[in-house]
User: What shape does this take?
Amino acid sequence: GENVEQHPSTLSVQEGDSAVIKCTYSDSASNYFPWYKQELGKRPQLIIDIRSNVGEKKDQRIAVTLNKTAKHFSLHITETQPEDSAVYFCAGGQTGANNLFFGTGTRLTVIP
Amino acid sequence: DGGITQSPKYLFRKEGQNVTLSCEQNLNHDAMYWYRQDPGQGLRLIYYSQIVNDFQKGDIAEGYSVSREKKESFPLTVTSAQKNPTAFYLCASSIRPGSGEKLFFGSGTQLSVL
Assistant: This one.
């Protein structure tokens, strides 16, 4: 089955700096890679996703890049703000299958 | 207010006891899922249901059971066979089945063993 690894497990940045979280996957058949954000005490919410037919996707201050050859994808957050502090989970899977495989999460702390 | 509701927020289980976690959605979603979240680990799939009266095992189904008698409801029972039940349980739904669909999560149930 698929195995998704996520690094780092914790990340602290100064407000205004950029943050990058990286994930690797093992199954070359995986073609869908979402990112979920879980604020303290709240439910995970989808913030951005990418499918394997594109290499990059951007939504305001967040972007995701995908390298299919190397089997890794990354989340980039620019101009970080305190409200970006949360646990971020990457995931990978095949569209049409029934299971998403999640990474172990990255706790991002933005220091004001 | 549309969404997915889990109850209770906290639940305690005694040795040998079965407990049931509730999950209800009013989003008219076909697919529903149960995930287990342990500290330092990613979400792991317990069971999923693509449609009413159908459900399938996920990666860690042993010691758990589910039912899907109504589209809106997907309760999870943690049986006494589950030897390490302490975890945070998340229910989710998606418009259609398939891992390429956006998941909508409930707010979770923290289960602890007395």
Remarks:
- Chain B has no helices and eleven strands.
